[in-house]
Structure formats: C-alpha cells, structure tokens
Records
---
Amino acid sequence: MTAAMLLQARGLSRRYGSDDTLVRAVDDIDLDVPAGQALAVMGPSGCGKSTLLQLLGGLQRPTGGEVWLGGRRVDTMSERALAKLRRDRIGFVFQDFHLMDELSAVENVELAALLAGQPPRRARRRATYLLDRVGLADRARHLPSELSGGQRQRVAIARALSNEPDVVLADEPTGNLDTAATHEVLRLFDELRAAGQTLVVVTHDARIAAVADRVISMRDGAFADSLHVGR
Ligand SMILES: Nc1ncnc2c1ncn2[C@@H]1O[C@H](COP(=O)(O)OP(=O)(O)O)[C@@H](O)[C@H]1O
Ligand SMILES: [Mg+2]
C-alpha cells in the first residue's frame, strides 16, 4: 500500500447473512484518503455508511478485502492490537454522542486522554485546552444532561481529539441535532479541516459537503461517484 495515503481500503466487503438473507452492506470498495483530507461519504439510509466506517476504524472486521491505516494493515490485527489502534490513532464521533452521563464535560475528555496513556496532569490540561477549542470552556464542569445537543456533540468531538488522532471518523454527527446545532458542529468540522485534521464523515445530511474537500456518494454498498471540491 502507498505510504502517502493515510487510510486505504482495497476490495473492502462486508456481507451479512447468506442465500436469501444475503446483504452486501459494503461491496468491494476501494478508497484512498491522503493525510489532511476531509472526506464526506453521503448516501441514503441503509446504503452501508456505518458499516464502512466501522470497517475503516477496526470496530468490525470485513468479510473480504483489506484496510490500511498509516501503513499498517488493520483488518488482520489481533483484538488487542485493534483496541490499541483505536485508542491511540483514531477519534470516533457518533450520532448519539456516547458521553458518560455521570462525568462532566471536561472529565469526559480527560478520561479518553487518560485511557490513551497520558499522565493525569497532561490529560487535564489537554481536556481543558480542547474544550476551549470547541468553544465550551465555560461549560467544562457541566454534566451532559445540562448541555444542549450541539454542545454535547462538541464535547464528543473534543474527546475524539484527546489522543491527537491520525483520523477522526464520524458517523452521522449531526443526525440528532437541530439546524442551529448542526451549524455549530459544521463550523467546528470546518476548523478541523482547515487545521489539517484528516476526517471521514459519513452522513445523509448534504450540508456536511460544505466542510469537505471531497464528497463520495454511496449506493447499495458501493461508491457511485466522487467529487473533489477543490480547495
Ligand atoms: N448486523 C447486521 N446484520 C444484518 N444486516 C445488517 C447488519 N448491520 C447492517 N445491516 C444491513 O446492512 C446494510 C447497511 O447498513 P448500514 O451500514 O447501517 O447503513 P447506513 O449506515 O448507510 O444506514 C443495511 O441493509 C442493513 O440493514
Ligand atoms: Mg448508519
């Protein structure tokens, strides 16, 4: 695989069931994401977006093909190596935030930094810095239940950045948000893009295209077309 590409897939496939129940959720996909690219993969519900993202992030194993991240083959790694890869090199953002309800905003971010092996003082400093970066310095001690949806997703994005990930993988990050909150989150993704963070966002929300360098359309488990936004 090419060293210049941060993230690559070759012949990537994930099938569910067999015979009558066979679903080709991801069907023979090739993908090259250079470092620093903000990629949006768009398509209707059920086209395989979440499955693709989970395969790329080592949350699920393919039934065929290969995934490479930073020159290392992901799909054949041991569970242990996969857990370490996810912890150290990938930032995940989910539609429903996945925050710890009983931890404050800053503690949610800090916990991820601690789990990634940062010493406690550094983890706290980094969490404070990241919350400031996502515009939530004044909400650091609030619980998720005391935050709006957009604020929760910004905490989740700060958490995804706690390990200085090679790539942020986001699955419908605006899926549970109203229009105002969607714009908050899009603005934040645009800042990450401008700062050179490699991003893969899968969504059916066409607004995400505004913060991507490249948009791929997905249908029935395969890529339909690819557009470079060219900036
Ligand atoms: N665990 C599973 N078992 C069987 N079929 C599944 C499973 N997960 C997803 N699928 C099917 O795979 C296809 C792609 O699903 P998914 O990746 O969730 O699509 P999207 O995220 O684009 O909505 C759908 O047809 C879905 O029903
Ligand atoms: Mg999905």
---
Amino acid sequence: MSTQTTREPTIDAPSHPEQSPRSEQSADSGQAPRSGLVEITNVHKSYGADEVLHGITLRIEPGQVITLLGPSGSGKSTLLRAINHLETIDSGSITIDGEYIGYERRGDQLYELREKEVLERRTRVGMVFQNFNLFPHLTALENIIEAPIALKRATKAEAVAKARVLLKRVGLSEREEHYPRQLSGGQQQRVAIARALALEPDVLLFDEPTSALDPELVGEVLSVIKDLANGGTTLIIVTHEIGFASEIADYVVFLDAGRVVEEGPPAKVLRSPEQARTQEFLDWVI
Ligand SMILES: Nc1ncnc2c1ncn2[C@@H]1O[C@H](COP(=O)(O)OP(=O)(O)O)[C@@H](O)[C@H]1O
Ligand SMILES: [Mg+2]
C-alpha cells in the first residue's frame, strides 16, 4: 500500500497547471515536483452511432493507484486507450501534467498532432495489455531495449544495463535470452511490465493484466504490480481482481455503460457501495 498522501479524484474541471498539485513537493521526500497527474474532463467517445463514453471526468493525482472496474463493454479499455491516445476522443480533454498526449490547443480548438509527436508524448504513459503484446521475434531483453534505443533515449549499452535492472525487478534475470514463446504467460506479462517501465513513464495503464493467465500465474504478476504501487508512478489498473484492488488501490472507480456510476476509496466502493449496480457487479465478480 502506498504511504503517500493522495487526494481523491474529484469531478472538478482541471485546475490551471500552475495551481495543480504536481507543483507541490511531497511532504516526506523533499524531492523534485512529482509528475503523473491525469486529468480526464467530460470525455465523450462514440463508435459510429454508439456512444461508449458518456462524459467521463476523473482526476488522478501523481503516484495514486486507481482501479477501474466494470462489466464487459462498459468502456474501460476505450478510456485507457484514450489516455495514451491509442483512441481519439470526440469531446472533452485528457491531460498528463497539463499536457495533451495527442492534441495541441490552438485557441479553443484541439488539433490532433502528427504521429511522430504523438509517439514522443505517448512515452510518458506506459501500457500493459491483457495479451502481453510482446514482440515474438525478440528476446525478453530485446523487447525491453527496443523502445529506448528506437527513440534515442539511450545507447545500446545503457539500455541493456537498464533492462537487466528491470528484469531483476520483475524476477526474470535468468530469462533475458528467452523468446516470448519460451516463457509462461506470467513471465511474459512481467517482461511486458519491464518493457513498459523502460521509458520511465509517469503513468502506467494496465488493461486486465491478469485475465489471460492461468490462475496459478496471477499472483506473480499482481505481486510485481503491487511493488510498483509503492514506487510513485501513477497506476490506472483495469482488473476484476477485487481482493487485489481493495489491497492496493487508493481509489476505485466503477464504470457501467460508459458512465462513472460510483467512485471512492476501496473500503467504501467495494465493501459498502451506494449504487445497486455496483453491488450487482461485485456479487457477480467475487
Ligand atoms: N474499435 C471499435 N469499434 C467499434 N466499437 C468498439 C470498438 N472498441 C470498442 N467498441 C465498443 O465500445 C464499447 C466499450 O468497449 P470497451 O472499451 O472495450 O469495454 P470494456 O473494456 O469495458 O469491456 C463496447 O460496446 C464495444 O463493443
Ligand atoms: Mg476491455
């Protein structure tokens, strides 16, 4: 469990960047201002005539761990993908530390950025997918060093040294030469987490990171995520693992049919929800 003091997401409009908490120093560290503030404001998204996000507003403080729950089709993946601009949005805004990932503002209008600029900005947000999405033709180590080298963030030697530290952190030092097909699902997902960390993102998104795993492999991946929860990176985790959510989340958001139905601390939302739909979902999932 994170020991940082965190604020709860609010439904306020985003504050002016100069006034936002990212410019505050954390009370115990005395370090540089923390980054990883995610502000999602009145986001709407449709696929054709089908509106799947109906005005989502959430504010996630730097270093906060939030879990996003909701039935299949409620818009969880769409929201995560919108955060790092793998999806466009129709209206509203999403910023990381006051900056758009896929857009720039000119006057009152947002304009989509070019692919190259999006790629550069997107590196602030790491993503871990349900099906790992490792490059099958690259070893564990090569998967991790690929982006830092391609983006010229590190020399090959630097990237390799760092990848080894990351592999150690996820408990896979012995597996650096293994290809994805030679690794279990849990090991592949841990490589994917190491890969996501290689660019030192301010925000990490997890889209059902354990739901493709055999039950006996779930624990090893959750324990790696738990370790990250103490590390100061903002984590947004879509999961059906309610026990895990209640253990590590600072804040829980329940989404249904593209709307935030209920949000609050895990003790509240997961143990005594106010909304019948939340309770129904919990009864079904537990
Ligand atoms: N690329 C797409 N094209 C059309 N409809 C989509 C697309 N992606 C998602 N949807 C629809 O949007 C809704 C929300 O999907 P999704 O965000 O994947 O939900 P969740 O992750 O909560 O299961 C669903 O009705 C889904 O069918
Ligand atoms: Mg999904």
---
Amino acid sequence: MTSVAAPLLASRPSEFRLRDGTRVLVRPIRAEDRDRLQVGLHQLSAASRYQRFHAAVSELSPQQLRELSEIDHVNHLAWIALDPTLPEQPAVGVARCIRLPQEPRTAEVAVTVLDAYQGRGLGTLLLGLLSQTAAAQDIRTFRAYVLEDNEAMLRIFRDLGAHVGRLDVGEYQLDIPVPEDPGRLPDTPTGRVFKAVAARARREAAGV
Ligand SMILES: CC(C)(COP(=O)(O)OP(=O)(O)OC[C@H]1O[C@@H](n2cnc3c(N)ncnc32)[C@H](O)[C@@H]1OP(=O)(O)O)[C@@H](O)C(=O)NCCC(=O)NCCS
C-alpha cells in the first residue's frame, strides 16, 4: 500500500463537508456496519434500489450483509459515509469495488447514496476515496454496469474518462480508468473532488 492511501484506511473516520455544507464522516467499511447497510437499504427509494441492483431488492440476507461488511480491503474495498448529526450515525452512502478474479487489475464498482443526500457531491466523494485505496491495491480499472437513464452515475464516470459500451437494451458497461494521479484529472466537478480527496490524503500522510 502506498504511504498516501494508508492514512485514509486508518480506523479514525475523516470529516468532509459536502457542496452544501452538510457534514459527513467517511471511513472504510467495517463488520460493525452490517446493520447500517440493512437500515440504509430500507431508506433507499425503490427507484434508487433498482438503479443499484438492477432488480427490486428490498432486503439483504444475513450472509449478504456479512459479505458486504466483512471485507479484506485488498480484493474487496468499500467506503461508507455516516451522518454524524444523528445519534446512531446512520449510513448515508457507500462506494465499493470487488476485484475480478479473471482480470485482477479490474474491479466491479458500485456507488449508492441515500436519496435524501443525493446531488450534494457525496457519490463523487466516496468514489474519490475508493479510487485512492483501489489504486494502492493495484486496481487500474473500475468496471460498472449502469442503466441508461442513470444520468448522475454516467456523468461521474464520463468525467473520469470512462469507455462506454452498450451491453444490453437499457444498460451500459463502462470501463473507468482509476486515476493514478488525480492531480492530472481535467478541471471538471468530478476532477475537482478527486483532487481535493488526494490533497487531504497527502496532508494526513504528512501528519498536517
Ligand atoms: C448515482 C449516485 C451514486 C450519485 O451520487 P450523488 O451523491 O447523487 O452524486 P453527486 O452529487 O456526486 O453528483 C454527480 C453528478 O451528477 C449530477 N447529477 C446528480 N443527479 C442528477 C440527475 N438526476 N440527473 C442528471 N445529473 C445528475 C450532479 O449534478 C453531479 O454533477 P456536477 O458535479 O457536475 O453537478 C446516486 O444518485 C445514487 O445512489 N443513485 C442510486 C443508486 C445508483 O444508481 N448507483 C449506481 C450503481 S453503479
């Protein structure tokens, strides 16, 4: 792992402010987040659940919850955002990627943000954090399956230079380069968030 990504993986959560000033705590996901994932799924609108799973998922089994929260952060990486203003600090967003065994430098990626928190830059922030730790694990490409009407997700991935292929009716397969040096990303909204995340990681690595 590179020295830049290591502090981001530290157990202490980092606080970020979203575009509208909303505070969130972000950290790599842990086993204790199992219940947060189920509660979060229940709070997600049916439309968002469909965009995420491409199916009408309304409940995760105990085994699925374990698989999504007890992860190695090498082949399966995930970041969770919590709302620090509420007593239980519920999950408000997750970005995860899982390495493909047959293409070990590629990982399937998915991002989910609760409807009430969408459109404030949280999805971009979580993906920026995930990119840093994925790059440190030698993951070079994110692969995503995105429904064609998912403007927000397509916007973020296109900003990152995604190669977009039509997979099936209504669905795209995207291959997104994981930025090795976010500083060289173009000056888009996504590029700016990724640069800010990288700058924060550098500051924390330097102990500033
Ligand atoms: C897709 C998703 C993760 C994006 O998260 P988010 O926090 O809302 O995204 P951001 O606020 O970072 O916005 C990303 C960009 O999309 C744009 N955007 C947001 N909602 C949009 C919409 N409905 N239509 C068009 N563009 C939209 C934003 O304006 C932003 O661009 P900008 O930075 O230039 O303004 C979130 O909407 C979500 O969880 N959707 C349901 C699950 C899902 O679709 N997951 C993807 C599976 S791969």
---
Amino acid sequence: MIFPRLRITHYAVFLALVFTLVACGGGRAGYSAEQQTVNGITIKLEHPQQLALLQQYELFVTLTGADGRPIDGATVFMAQDMPAMPMNSNQPIGEPLGNGQYRITGVFSMDGDWRLVIHARVAGQEYAATFNQSVTPAQ
Ligand SMILES: [Cu+2]
C-alpha cells in the first residue's frame, strides 16, 4: 500500500507547480501593464518598471477592439518624449507578434521622466495613448 501514497505525493507536488506557474503567468516579470481606451480601441502597454539608460528594452503593446477581439494588421509605433524639455528621439515601430500584440524595442537616451505615446493606425484611423515611464540614472 505504499504505491498509492507515493502517487498522491507526486500529484500534490505537480499541483503546487501548476499553481506557481499560473501565479507567475499574470504578467511579465518586472513589467507593469497599463491600458487606455481611445475611441473604442484599447491600447495596453507593458513596459519595464525600471529602465536604465542606453539599454535596449522590449515593450509590448496589445490592441483590442470594442468587441473584445485582438487587432492585428495595425501600424504601431512609439513616440518618446520628455515633458520637461524638447527631445530628439527615435520612433520605434512595433513588430507584429499576432494575437493583437506588437513588440517595440526602445532605448532611452536620458534619465528622468519620459512620456511614451503609443500610436496605432487601425483601418485608416489613428489612435494614440500616452503613458509615463521613468528612467533611472546610470550608476
Ligand atoms: Cu531630456
């Protein structure tokens, strides 16, 4: 009668593992997710909680329509700006990942508070949402 007990133990370990994975699956580690709805289209941005200077980061945009469906085939780009001063900054384009997701690779040339404007062109219409991102000074 040792056999069934062993199996139950293994099953419990397996279950604990599954719950751990589910708990971690709620979002990307080290990222915060924010979203805004603009004229019926929801623009969600997952961006790193902490950014350091002059390193490449991946940001993820998810577009959802008013019907709750993911929007593919959009043109997405990010405009980076600092509210405190005029900045010359690049405007990286979102790479489509499917399922309404787009990956943007960004670099921040200065520490401080940035404003990220996510632009999405969907079926000839322009949508934009603004998010804040702080960049920590180099050590
Ligand atoms: Cu600046």
